[in-house]
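Listing 4. Sequential folding, example run.
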Amino acid sequence: MSFKVAIRNFKTLSYVGSYKKMRDRPLRFYCATILGAGYVAYNEFKKSKAEMKEIIQLKNYMAEPITPLSQLQKNQDDMKTQMELLIMRIQAEFCRALEKEEDEAWEDEKTADDYDFDNDIFLPSPEAKFKVDRWTRKEGGGGITCVLQDGRVFEKAGVNISVVSGKLPPPAVQQMKSRGKNFENKELPFFAAGVSAVIHPRNPMVPTIHFNYRYFEVKDKNEVHWWFGGGTDLTPYYLNEEDARHFHLTLKHACDSHDPTYYERFKKWCDDYFTITHRGERRGVGGIFFDDIDSPDQQSAFEFVTSCAEAVIPSYIPLVKRHKDDGYGYRERQWQLLRRGRYVEFNLIYDRGTKFGLHTPEARYESILMSLPLNAKWEYMHEPEPNSPEEKLMKVLKEPRDWLNIEKTKSTAS
C-alpha cells in the first residue's frame, strides 16, 4: 500500500502542467516531488499501524481471498474485511515459518536412508510443502486449507482459514443459546471468519500446538451481534518446563499489552476448556482461551486478537528449533501415538469448533477434521511407569501448573 501511495502521489505531481513546464523545472523540484510522495506514503503507513488496520497484500497470501477483491477494497474499514485480511496474513506467515523449518532440516542434502528412522512408519519428503486447497460453498463464502504431510520435522501440519456466511440451522443456534446467547429467531443470518491451525511434529520432543482466532456476526431482529474468540495452547508429549514457561510468557506479553487481567483469566479458561472429562486430565499444558469477547469495543477487541495471533510464531517456532533434532526411540514414539489418541478424543467429543462446523450447512469435513493427526494409537488400560518421564507429564495434565508463578508473586506481595 505504501508503494502504491508513493506512485499515486508522484503521478499526480508529474502530470500537473504541461510536459514542457515539467521539463524546464530544476532538478531540486523532482527531488522535492519524490520526498513529498515518500512523506505522504510514510504518514499513511504510520496511520495504518497506529490504527491496527490490515492492508491488502495479495502477493503474500497462500491463495486469493475468499471475498472478491473489489468488495474488500470498497469496505476496508468494515470488521468483516479487517478480520479476513488478518487471518489471510497470519495463515501465510505461519505456513512459511513452518516450511522454513522443513527447508533447513534438509540443507545438508541427506537422503531418507541417512537417518535412523523406520521407513515402515513414514517416508520423509525433502520437498515437504503445504498443499493449498481453496474452496467455496454455495450458501456463501469458503476457505483456504493448507496441509503439509510427511515432512522430516512435521508429520502433519494444517493451517486453515474460513470466511463463511449464510443462515445458522437450529442445532447451531441451540448450541449458541447454551452459551448464554439470547436469540429469538430459530434461523439466523451469520458471518464467521477465522484461522485455525494444528501442528503435529515428527519428533516426540517437539510439542503439538493449536491456535484458533475467529470473528462472528449474527443478525437477530434487525440487530447485529458480534464477538471474537480464540486461543493458543500447547500439547507436549514430554514435559520441558523451560518450554512451557517460554510459551506462557510469550502469550502473557501479548495479553498484558491490552489488559493486565487477560492472561490470568484466559489461562484458567484454557485449562478448564481443554479438559478430557472422561479421562480426568487436560489435553496439554494450556495457554490462553477466550470466547464471546465483545468489549471494551470492537476495534480494541480486534487489536487484542491481532496481538494474540501474532504471538504464535515467537511462542512456538523457538521450541521447534530447540528440539527437532533431539534423539528418541521406539518407546518415545509409542507414547507420542498414545497421547495423540487423547488429542483425537477431545477434538471429536468436546471441541465446540468441531461440533459447530459439523452442524453448519455444506460443512467441509476434510477441513474440519484437519486437526486430527496422521497417526494415533489406543492401548487398553495403559498406565505410565512410576517415576518415568511419561508419569511426570501426566501429573501436570491432571493438576495444571502456574507456569509463571503468578499466585506465588501475589501472595508474596500481600
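-- end of first protein; second protein begins --
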Amino acid sequence: MAVDGKSEPLLIRVEDFEYHKGCPGCEIDRWKHDHAGIPYKSLMFVWIIVLAASLPISSLFPFLYFMIDDFHIAKREEDIGFYAGFVGSAFMLGRALTSIAWGTAADRYGRKPVIICGTVSVVIFNTLFGLSTNYWMAISSRFLLGSLCGVLGPMRAYASEVCRKEHQALGLSTISTAWGLGLIIGPAIGGFLAQPAEKYPYWFPQGSLFGRFPYFLPCLVISALALVAVVSCYWLPETLHKHGKHEKFDKTITVKVIPIESGKVQVSEPESPSCEQSLLRNWPLMSAIILYCVFQLHDTAYSEIFSLWATSPRTLGGLSFSTSDVGEVLAMSGFGLLLFQLILYPLVEKSLSPLNITRIGAALTILLLTTYPLIAQLSGLRLTLLINIASTFKNILSVLIVTGLCILQNRSVSQSQRGAANGISIAAMSAFKALGPIVGGSLLSWAESRLSASFLPGSWMIFFILNSIEFAGLVMTLKPFIALSADT
C-alpha cells in the first residue's frame, strides 16, 4: 500500500482455525490464538500445585537423623545415615515404578484428573508419615506417597501447553522454580517445626499430640498446604485435546504479504504432523532425559548429605547444626532463589540457550562444592554467612540446570506424546533419585569413618564424589552425546 508515494511494509496473517466445540484442548488453543500475553492465572495455579507436591519430598531431611535415632534401629551413631538413606529413597522408588503409568493416564484421560489424584495423596500419606511410630511405617508411607503422587510429569506437559511457544520457557521455569522452592522450603518447615515440644514447650506441651509425635507438626502444615492445592485444582483448565485422532490438529493457512515494492506474495501452509515416532527412539528426548537423571542423582545425594552433614557432630566432620539452624539456611536459600527467579532468570533465559544454561550451571556447581570442606573449618558468624551464600547459589544453579533440560525435553515431542514423555522422564529420574539418598547416606557414613585417612579425609571425599557425578553430567552435555530437536 502506498501513502504519499511511499510504500509501506505490510504483513497480513489470515488463519483458518479449526475449533472443536466441547474440546478443552481446543479451548486452550483458541485462547492462546486470541491472547498473545502470558497466562498468569494458570501459571499461578501451576505454581501452587507444584509447590505443594514438592514440599514433602525433602521436608524430612533436617529431622531424619533424629527420627531414625528415635526409632532405635541403628546400633551405632555412624549407622544412622545408612538407615536414613532408605527412608529418603522410598519416595523416589515409588515414583519410579508409577510415573510412566501416570503419564500415560494423563495422555488418555487428561492432565487434571491425574493432578488432583496426586495432590490428594500428599494430604493423606504425608500426614501418615508424620504419625509414624516405627521405621517400617515411615518407609511404607513414603513409598505410597511417591507411588500415588504422579504430579510432576503432567504438570510439565500442562505448563508447556497452556503457554504460547514464546512463553514456554517461562512456564517451565515456573515448574522448576516452584519445585526448587519446595525442595528448599520443605526442609525449612521440617527444621523449624520438628520436635515442637522441645523448642516451643509453651505452645506444645510434652503430653500433647505433638509431644508424642515430634515430627507430626511439619507434616501437618505441608498437608494443609496440599489441601489448598487440591481446592485450587477446581480452577485449573484441562489442556488435553479430546476428539478424534484424525481431527486433533488444527489446520492453519498463513498469507504473508511482503513490502509492496518487492512485488512478492508468499503463501505457506504448515505441513501435516508427521507420524509420531517411538519415544524410546527419539534421541533428542532420550539424551535430555539421561542428562536429567545424572544431574538429579547429584542433587538428591547433595540434599541428603547436606542436612545429615550439617546436623552431624563436629567430631565426625559435621557442622553440629540443630534442626532450626538447618531450617534457617534452607529458608534463606529459598528466599534467594525466589529473588533470582523474579529478577535475574528472565535475563539469563533471553541471553543463553537451554543447553548453555545447563553447561554453565554444572561448571559453576563443581567450583562451588569444592569450597564446602573449607567452609566447614570456620565457625561463628563467618560459617553462618558463607554456608548461607553457598547453599543459595547451589540451589539457584540446580534450578537453572533442571529448567534448561525440561525445555529440551518438552520441545522434542508433540503434545499427544508429552504426558508419556514426561512420564518416562520422571520414572527414570525417580529411579536415579531413589539411589541418591542411599548413595548420600552411605557415603556420609563411610566418609565419617575415615576422618584420619591420608587421601581426601572426611568431607573432602564426600564433595569430591559429588563433583565427579556433576562433571560426568557436564561432559555429557557436549556433542556427540547430546542431540537437539529442530525446535530447540
